Amino acid sequence: MPKIRKKTTIAIVGLGYVGLPLTILAAKSGIIVYGLDKDKEKIRLLQNRKNYLSDAGLTRDLEKVIGEKKLIPATHFSILKKCQAILICLPTPVYKNFKPDLRILKNAAGKIGPYLKKGSLVINESTVAIGTTREILGKILEKKSGLKMGQDFYLACSPERVDPGTANKTENIAKLIGGINEQSGRRAYQIYQKFIKAPLEIVASLEIAEGAKMLENSYRALNIALVNELALLCEKINLDVTAIIAAASTKWSFQAHWPSLGTGGHCIPVDPHYLTDLARDKGVTMKSLEAGMATNHQMPLRFAAKIVKAYKKGMRILIYGLAYKKNIKDLRESPSLTVCRLLQKRKVSFQVYDPFYATQEIRALGFTPGRVKKGIYDLVVIATDHDTLQKDAAKIISKNTVVLDGKNYFQKKVGKKVIGVGRTL
């Protein structure tokens, strides 16, 4: 099989939380990268060297690769004719009934297909259920291109493993690569080795790669559900769940997971539903995973009920944090957002503060912006444990403030009382 030419040109379809960092990383390595997105505002910002993600660390590299014309933003799929490889990094959400919503992926596949040529490589990084890359993505590409996957064009799957807001950057996270055949896997490997420093593992098939991603996130979701249920028990028997988890962590084989007001992001609250949906289609019931997901989905409702119980008319309430996890600006499946919506339905008055969101952005979500100022609030809800909380806590919590700690952030009593998830201080 011929190697990828030294002068490599690729396209990355989808410039969100996964696609943009990957695009910048590839462009830094010297590859010419066309960044493709249907959002014209994103493309305009990129053309003006503006970073629209909350990861400030990307900004300098973005400015450099745009200036050097290593990254070329585009909205037209016709640019794919210039590319040896096409990486798909698109959202794959679920419907309200938790069935996979593949409309974005299918639509993109239909637009990619006409521009494929013999020898093209398509890599799916989007998280999908087992069999999707072959049976849905591949077949749409075949239909629209008139080519055969595995014969005329290469097809691979390498599920993204990004970890926003942490030091775990894309280039340092090990990647799995599964191909429709051995040549496809090797071809994808040649592309990734140009800009990924971490180990690259070629697995036996597309389906093994897809299944690994399903297992990784289902494993995490199920363990979170277990400690969430333990937290509910601890609230009834007056024990500190975090002390139990810390004690269990002294055993070498125990992997700690922590309860909270809820899981967020695109992965943990979503991906396991792809697996349970596939299982049901095949006549298998994954009872433990279904029950665990139900537990996790209930946590924001339970936490909102705690706030309602603590609330007294006239109380001044601050919700600290909107993002689904600390140190990022990302509302996808945010439990804080769910809690806020539930409080609105219960006619509970509150204000919202998040250091990553401007006051006008908070207003646009339908909330009243709050302030970091002492003596204002009777009840403070910790919904996101941003690093800024370390300095902000003393400003928003007074001696008579009741704290509802949805992240079990505080290790000792502050204010009048701290009511956590599975603990009270």
Q: Can you summarize this structure?
A:
The protein has 425 residues and is an alpha/beta fold. 38% of the residues lie in helices and 13% in strands.
**Silhouette:** globular
How many structural units, i.e. domains?
2
Per CATH, the architecture of the largest domain is 3-Layer(aba) Sandwich
Helix content class: 25-40%
Which sheet architecture does the biggest sheet show? 8 strands, mixed
* Text of the CATH class of the largest domain: Alpha Beta
From the N-terminal CA to the C-terminal CA, the straight-line distance is 64 Å
From the 3D structure, determine the CATH topology of the largest domain. Answer: Rossmann fold
Spatial ordering of strands, largest sheet? 3-2-1-4-5-6-7-8
Counting DSSP E segments of at least 2 residues, the number of strands comes to: 14
The CATH superfamily of the largest domain bears the name NAD(P)-binding Rossmann-like Domain
Percent of residues in beta strands: 5-15%
| Helix and strand element order | EHEHHEEHEHEEHEHHHHEHEHEEHEE
Average pLDDT, rounded to a whole number, is 96
Radius of gyration: 23 Å
What are the low-pLDDT stretches, counting only 5+ consecutive residues below 50?
Answer: none
Q: Decide which structural class fits the backbone.
A: alpha/beta
